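thought: fold this chain, then report.
action: predict
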Amino acid sequence: MKTPLLAFNDKGIYCAAANVYLDPWKPVDKAIISHGHADHSRWGHKKYITHHSNVPIIKHRLGDIVVSGVEWNETFSINGVKFSLHPAGHIIGSSQIRVEYKGEVWVFTGDYKTEDDGVAVPYEPVKCDTFITECTFGLPAFKWTPQKQVFEDINNWWQQNQDDGRTSVLFGYSLGKAQRLLKHLDSSIGKIYTHGAIENMTEVLRDQIDFPKTTRITRETKKEEIKGNIVLAPGSAHGSTWIRKMVPYVTASASGWMTFRGARRRRAIDKGFVLSDHCDWQGLLQSIKETGCEKVICTHGYTDIFSKFLREQGYDARTEETQYESETGALENDKEKDSE
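observation:
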């Protein structure tokens, strides 16, 4: 039986021909990393390879690591296997990993989205034989509203809260979602304040992206100066003593899971904005079609449902277990990402 070019084992996605792992979840000698979120770039590998714009991100999060950066579409070989990184559009520095060996091509997406958010380098389809795709939002119920409309709604919400004399507290992941929000907030409405976790990450990324001015909230920050402005915070700040300084405030969360009203109610959020850094149902299907692939491997998300649908469409589709996390609506699940 032919050994697959990429195989899933207890450490991660393994390329035996090159003796290298893609986004491994246990320590390995050599890891190619798709992006900087904590479930895909973990501590403990001897050597990391990633896109150069992701290098400062994972150094900030992981500390003193041995890491090298490569450019988009730059081919590098390991034991005769050709690798290259291609924009995934998920967050800043996020990549799809293309693997080619003896005429066979696989693409591992990591996490990705097809809408250009104005922050990450936009997603580019990559031709392949086998496509490893996440399916976080792999249900027909998920259909994203264009970003422009979502941010009009967010800025109108902020303006209304200001008119009512209340502070707007907007929750989002400290890496990726927070910077996307920041980039498109209308700073003419007022000042943009940030939780320390978000400010720290944004400072790392200011060399790459032109963000509006932000003000870090510290112990010295007065409640009176925050009033009527907007605060970007990780979900882990919800319900904490830190948020008391914002009173009177209104909360909102930006997530694909805000599609479901129950997700907002369960988490005691006043307002939900449907904004995801992952593909919706149609985005997933279109991406797969554009690769020209015959085989699809579905990971983290609605894997069983999505792969079944793909098989009905004629694809050779199956699922594989990973230790990657889907974007979650559970605010408490932000703690690992936002504590770094």
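thought: worth noting. The domain at 147-273 is CATH 3.40.50.10890 (Rossmann fold).
final: tokens above.
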